[in-house]
Design brief:
The chain is an all-alpha fold and about 150 residues long. Helix content is about 70%, strand content about 0%. The radius of gyration is 20 Å and the shape is globular. Helix 1 (about 1-35) packs across helix 5 and helix 3 (about 75-95) runs antiparallel to helix 5 (about 105-120). The longest helix has about 30 residues, at about 1-35. It has helices at about 1-35, 55-70, 75-95, 100-105, 105-120, 130-145. It contains six helices and no strands. The protein has one domain. It is found in: Cell membrane. This is DoxX family protein. Keywords: Cell membrane, Membrane, Transmembrane, Transmembrane helix.
């Protein structure tokens, strides 16, 4: 059974990445464009451009979430998005109370840890990162085999 689970692991990580990235990008889209219920606390509206920290967080959510969703630059995008959620938790939510259940910071805490996990696991299967890695490996293999061709004397 462990063998089957180990073979499925890259696909489970890939699906996890896709779901987490999509949910995060939806938060950014809601705040920036007023879709999906709009920004929290705006009664379905958007955040004013350039307001700190909300508008910048929404841009990170939309762009970072999209990059994670696609599996493009996953580790870097996940590190930035994880950091933004850590900032949101400690600067915004923890002022109200210590525990996430008390201060409304559950989503921030969960996103922070989910993205931190992706920093270490990478994109898994089904990501654009994998396509680039395969192309690089193929190109490196072709150069290596061509470089090792014996030369006739």
């Amino acid at each position: 059974m462990n063998g089957r689970l180990n073979k499925a692991q890259p696909y489970a990580v890939g699906l996890f990445r896709i779901v987490v990235g999509l949910l995060f990008a939806c938060h950014g889209a809601a705040s920036l464009f007023g879709i999906l219920g709009g920004a929290a606390g705006t009664d379905g509206g958007t955040l004013d451009a350039g307001t700190w920290p909300g508008w910048y967080a929404a841009v990170i959510q939309l762009v970072g979430g999209t990059f994670v969703l696609l599996g493009l630059g996953t580790r870097v995008a996940a590190l930035i998005t994880s950091g933004s959620m850590a900032y949101a938790y400690f600067d915004v939510h923890q002022q109200a109370a210590l525990w996430p259940i008390q201060n409304g910071g559950e989503a921030s805490a969960m996103f922070c840890w989910a993205f931190l996990l992706l920093v270490f696991t990478g994109s898994g299967a089904l990501g654009v990162d994998r396509l680039f890695a395969k192309r690089s490996a193929t190109a490196a293999g072709e150069r290596t085999s061509a470089d090792q061709t014996p030369v006739a004397a």
